Amino acid sequence: MSLNNNGLKGSCMRIPLLAALVYAYFCAPISLEQKAFVQTVSSPPTQNRLADGYDPLRDAGKDLTAASAEAQRSNKNILVEVGGEWCSWCHILDRFFDDHPDLAALRDKNYVIMKVSMSEENPNGAFLSRFPYVRRYPHIFILGARGNLIRSQPTHGLEDGQSYNAKRFWEFLERFAPKRAPADPR
Fold this sequence. Notes:
The chain is of the alpha+beta class. It has 2 domains: about 10-40, no CATH class; about 45-175, Glutaredoxin (3-Layer(aba) Sandwich). The protein contains 8 helices and 6 strands; from the N terminus they run H-H-H-H-E-H-H-E-H-E-E-E-E-H. The strands form 2 sheets. The protein has a 4-stranded mixed β-sheet with strand order 2-1-3-4. A two-stranded antiparallel sheet has the order 5-6. Strand 3 (about 140-145) and strand 4 form a beta hairpin. Helix 6 (about 100-110) packs parallel to helix 8 (about 165-175). The longest helix is centred in the N-terminal third of the chain and has 19 residues, at about 10-25.
């Protein structure tokens, strides 16, 4: 069997060139300035990674440990959203905060946000068994900085039509925000 330039032999000759290009793109040394830029752009803060979707592969127990450490360091409570990528109201909740930057700012000022998947791939039964039973999704748990339960909140009470009610959400977030010592008037 003979191979011409249009056959397998020609394809195999391209592999070293492709490998060199892949190496140059992904592995070639970059300057410290480029590294700092890449890290800034590609490494979101811990809080964002904990709140980045309802990933069934995440370990909710480890996420809570990380959220608790961040909450203790920053004097915040922990807002746990339980839901799934399958949950339309979970996506509405994400859009609601995107559409209400004042509420997102209040939330981010007072809470470390963490999402927990409740899905067929990972129902997180062991993790969720420490909290009151969840009947609807999304569901919010407010935890203290050390992981103690402060509030179990079904979100249907915060709904309004096809979205959420901004006033009720504002009151909810303020009510369960961590208590801070008043500023020294001196």
